[in-house]
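Let's study a protein:

===
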Amino acid sequence: MLSLRAHTANFITLLNALFGFLGCVAMIQDRFDLALIALIAAAIADFLDGFIARILKVESAFGNFMDSMADVISFGFFPSLWWYFLLSESLSVLWAAGLASLLFVSALLRLVRFSVYPSKSIHFEGLPTPAMALFVVLITQTELFDQMAYFTPVWFKRAAVFLTLLFSGWMVSKIPAISLKFKDYTFKANILRYLVMLSAIVGFVLLREELVLVLLPTYTLGSLLIKR
């Protein structure tokens, strides 16, 4: 019985990895719409496996390690490959591959560190890979991204380098990042979480696909306000 309960969470973790893999296959087939659906499915599975493990009280070192390995695929390799394909439309293969590689290596280091040295803080230590994946995908869906690539290629390259360095450096650093996992729902204890959620809602209502232009600065500035 205990084994069945434990494998329930682990099976969902495997779904996370599988969706990430299928998303990469979809990108190779130039089906970025399906890849995006796969990423959303992977994110849902990533949330559910930990939630179910806590509910069933079957958290284990094996499950935590498997979760990190799944995240390497879904929130490490997937967004890096996405970043490569979208950048390679405007930058040289060398530049696109180099920036995507830096993103992937940083995500891998972040996940290994998190697996070996789990943080006990209520917030993350370094930018979590799911947040990085979300920001990468959202940024590439904006009109600003397309317009910069077409009208100002020099500034597009600079922006791509800046964003890659921002996400990569933050992932491997110990700079805190806001966690959206609630232990209670009091305003005082969760003011930064509510701020991020509000910015996402306001950004979507006002800007739609451009919501990352509000969400990313809010998340970054809110994270810098976390008391260490």
